[in-house]
Amino acid sequence: MSNIKQQQWHDFVELVRRAFAEGREEELLTLLLTSDERDAVGLRVKIVDALLEKTLSQREIQQKLNTSAATITRGSNMLKTMSVDFVQWLQQR
């Protein structure tokens, strides 16, 4: 990631932190994300939840959530790169 893109990402993360700290997260995310993007983020949360539950195969998750195999695989691969501590944190929700 280029330095400019990395800085933009960090600026975004800081803005999100501030919005959550001040109870303005929904307004901010509605401003920044289109309806389709919000739907896509919601779907990714469902995918991560299903992958963490480990009760369904990736194909079953794909069929249940009506999405592509590539989207499920991408989520699975990203989970593998996360720290054990972070994955445990996710599982506590």
What would you say this structure looks like, in words?
With 93 residues, the protein is an all-alpha fold. The protein folds into 2 domains: 1-32; 41-92, TrpR-like (Trp Operon Repressor, Chain A, Orthogonal Bundle). It has 6 helices and no strands. The two termini are 30 Å apart. The model has no long low-confidence stretch (mean pLDDT 96).
Kindly report the CATH topology of the largest domain. Trp Operon Repressor, Chain A
Within CATH, the superfamily of the largest domain carries the name: TrpR-like
**What percentage of residues falls in helices of 4 or more residues?**
over 70%
Class computed from helices, strands and strand pairing: mainly alpha
Into how many domains do the coordinates divide?
2
CATH class of the largest domain: Mainly Alpha
Question: How confident is the prediction overall: mean pLDDT?
Answer: 96
Distance between the termini: 30 Å
Question: How many strands, what sense, and barrel or not for the largest sheet?
Answer: none
**Strand content of the residues, in percent?**
under 5%
Spans of at least 5 consecutive residues with low confidence:
none
Shape estimate: globular
Quantity of strands, as a count: 0
Query: Which architecture name of the largest domain does CATH use?
Result: Orthogonal Bundle
**Tally of helical runs:** 6
Rg, Cα atoms, Å: 15 Å
The helix/strand series, from N terminus to C terminus, equals: HHHHHH
